[in-house]
């Protein structure tokens, strides 16, 4: 049995690959600018904050002026601001994040010890947001106006709730009263449920609203009428055919939400007394621990950048129009 002819590499295929390569390169160049801007803004903000870095290094102890001058010179705190800034950029470009002023350990070690807990919280939040928003959107995309109003009203209430207040409410009801879940400080899977719900509530409501609007628009398309005429059930129709056409705005929104979850994790980790980079960031800002702050800001910016590149790739796969234009529709 002979093999069939290999598919030909047409000029159109090569052109689409070239457009995709240009898109990736443009996003990569933009990513460098975002990371540089994040480091620069953080550096300047820490410089104008009240307090002295030398006091942080000395842990508030009383020392002689000679000892203070020695510490200042050792960490180059007496260098001009521009020199300190360029030194930070050079070390970061080499992957050297320095040592924590307060923890007295390499920044990589300080972050590495807290990162798994934060990543677990973020990943579980994304999963709950994706699954919950699809369920709410499919159930709420009804032709009955009162059903849409009911879902939209409930989602608006959830979005308006402050995450810390919702976290305290969940703790009060499900931990202290019903005792279904562990109280604060738990690191096991059961201890991840309430923090995830508190962090995922608002994103789920927002994405569900966007998805539902897309579903309602798509339900008016001619292919939906054809699918119904072929006897496809309503639920299967929405999940297998309609949902794919409504995903693009939601995918874009999920990219933005992913980048913002680091900030939300700070609040949730404090409310639930969880370990993680959120609490580490708060402590570092309060103590002007610049190496840790800059490293965590870089981490948050990198998450945002990677999420947006992934969004572009998903849009390329989901929407054929992006394969022709080389950019998201």
Description of the molecule:
By secondary structure, the chain is mainly α. The protein has a domain at 108-325: Orthogonal Bundle (MetI-like fold), CATH 1.10.3720. The protein is 76% helix and 0% strand. It has 13 helices and no strands. The chain has helices spanning 11-48, 53-57, 65-74, 81-93, 107-140, 145-160, 163-177, 190-218, 222-229, 234-271, 277-286, 290-318, 320-325. Helix 5 packs parallel to helix 12 and helix 8 (190-218) packs across helix 10 (234-271). The chain is globular. The protein starts with 10 loop residues before the first helix and ends with a helix. The relative contact order is 0.13.
- CATH homology superfamily of the domain at 108-325: MetI-like
Estimate percent helicity.
over 70%
Structural class: mainly alpha
Could you list the spans in which at least 5 consecutive residues all have pLDDT below 50?
325-329
